Amino acid sequence: MWSFGDAYESYVGRWSRPVAVEFLRWLGVPPGRTWLDVGCGTGALTGTVLAHAQPAAITGIDPSEGFLDLARQRVPGATFEAGTATDLGGRTADVVVSGLVLTFVPDVVQAVGEFAQAAPYVGSYLWDYTSGMRMMRLFWDAAKDVDPAAASRDEGLRFSSVSAPGPLRALWAGAGLRDVEVTGIVVPTVFRDFDDFWSPFLGGAGAAPAYAATLPPEQLGAVRDLLRSRLPEHGPIELTAKAWAVRGSR
Ligand SMILES: C[S@@+](CC[C@H](N)C(=O)[O-])C[C@H]1O[C@@H](n2cnc3c(N)ncnc32)[C@H](O)[C@@H]1O
């Protein structure tokens, strides 16, 4: 699901970058700190930390070699290493951040425990899959209308136990973090036209594209046509994406 760095970029990497900017503003970490970016992917958040937070050093960690390769090319100035959220290999830093990752980690309690052990300040964000991440919401609603079995793959249903204010607050508090705060971050996602909206779903990288790849051509075409009928016919498609962000300190 995570091996195609370029496909991920056009699917969601391009939208995670503006969320990262707002998230860092909200975290308010002073310059000169060391950072770990867990589940760094193609380096969207890592690069944004370098551009906006003047870190002393930053290491990005991800299990996907394909993403790490692309991150190394895209974000010079950071270190990128293989690893997972549930085993940070004893690494420490002033700040641990993790963008759009926890919903994919098998044991989130263990992961946030690792984060809190590794750093005194821990922040993260996840899409609001239930409603606010419009691009994905529209896709899953259309997919379920065509293929009722898609309900079992819908990220809005699968991830609601993690990606919502209550669960995030409980996770952070459960890891012994204090002054826990959660906020919503909304960014515009503007698509040039329907093709710019639809073609990233065909790239295989991410949960919705991975599901799309399993559909026979006629069902995939029916999802596409339904989406086309629900979106503006002419001009750019102006949607928004909402993420839930959480922060806390040890
Ligand atoms: C939606 S992408 C987010 C990437 C990047 N943080 C961003 O904001 O664009 C999810 C990332 O989580 C990584 N991932 C999946 N399982 C993981 C795990 N158990 N530990 C750490 N990262 C994981 C994937 O390889 C992928 O890079």
Automatic annotation (TrEMBL):
Any one GO molecular-function label of the UniProt entry: methyltransferase activity
Domain (Methyltransferase type) ranges: 36-117
Membrane-crossing residue ranges in chain numbering: none
Cross-referenced Gene3D superfamilies: Vaccinia Virus protein VP39
InterPro entries for the chain: Methyltransf_11 (IPR013216), Methyltransf_Superfamily (IPR050508), SAM-dependent_MTases_sf (IPR029063)
Keywords: Methyltransferase, Transferase
Protein name: Methyltransferase
This protein's record includes keyword Transferase: yes
Pfam families given in the database record: Methyltransf_11
GO biological process, one term: methylation
